Amino acid sequence: MSAVLDRLRGRLIVSCQANPGSPLRDPHIISRLALAAQQGGAAGLRIQGFEDVLAVRAVTDLPIIGLTKTDRPDTPVYITPTSAEAARLAELGSDIVAFDATLRPRPESVVHLVQTIHAAGALAMADISTLPEAQAAYEAGADIVGTTLAGYTPHSRALTTADWLLMDELREGGLTFIAEGRLNSPQDAARAMRHGAHAVVVGSAITRPDVITTWFAGALRDGS
């Protein structure tokens, strides 16, 4: 296993992202969120977009999982759908490049994306939603898989929680994985480790106060 993945073993990775329209949608603010996460004990960061990766790389040496989100009319795949985007993320300082490896129509093959990422000097993280997708990603040469897209594809289990069963399937299949998706509390993060995760990614519950506020406001509204 690579030195980067060794650094992340058993540790927390914080996703620092802000959607368009968010008051936090600024590369400088994202870099501050990244530094706050580092100060709190994060061992790695998951960062979306070229400008944000560049801004975060300038202020920290923590491992960065870089990705893009690109809406395309020809495919439902939107996390780093092309090799050009993948290569650019590596050039800007991403140690790991994450991409959608789901079994859906895609502009480029998983094999080609992995080869491009490796040629650019980074590790390839395949975001998957099912066990067969994880198996296919490893066969294509991915270095690690993430449960990022579980529950977000038509063929994966529809859930409002993390996909604990998928984690068990990956562990029992001997597949190393990073847990990500709907892990909204420290208890969830710890539970993911007990289900066999190599590392855990948490985003909204740490770095998106607008989202967290909706949880509390909704709970009060429903309770009243």
Automatic annotation (TrEMBL):
Task: State the EC number(s).
Answer: 5.1.3.9
Q: What class of enzyme is it?
A: isomerase
Q: Out of the domains of life, which is the source? A: Bacteria
Q: What are its GO biological-process terms? A: carbohydrate metabolic process; N-acetylmannosamine catabolic process; N-acetylneuraminate catabolic process
Gene Ontology terms, cellular component aspect?
cytosol
Membrane-crossing residues? none
Record InterPro entries? Aldolase_TIM (IPR013785), NanE (IPR007260), RibuloseP-bd_barrel (IPR011060)
Decide whether keyword ATP-binding is in the record: no
> What's the catalysed reaction?
an N-acyl-D-glucosamine 6-phosphate = an N-acyl-D-mannosamine 6-phosphate
What are the protein's UniProt keywords?
A: Carbohydrate metabolism, Isomerase, Plasmid
Q: Is this entry keyworded Isomerase?
A: yes
The pathway where this protein functions is: Amino-sugar metabolism; N-acetylneuraminate degradation; D-fructose 6-phosphate from N-acetylneuraminate: step 3/5
According to the UniProt entry, its GO molecular function terms are: N-acylglucosamine-6-phosphate 2-epimerase activity
Any single Pfam family the record assigns to this protein: NanE
Assigned protein family: Belongs to the NanE family.
Physiological role: Converts N-acetylmannosamine-6-phosphate (ManNAc-6-P) to N-acetylglucosamine-6-phosphate (GlcNAc-6-P).
Query: Which protein, by its recorded name, is this?
Result: Putative N-acetylmannosamine-6-phosphate 2-epimerase
Q: Report the source organism.
A: Deinococcus deserti (strain DSM 17065 / CIP 109153 / LMG 22923 / VCD115)
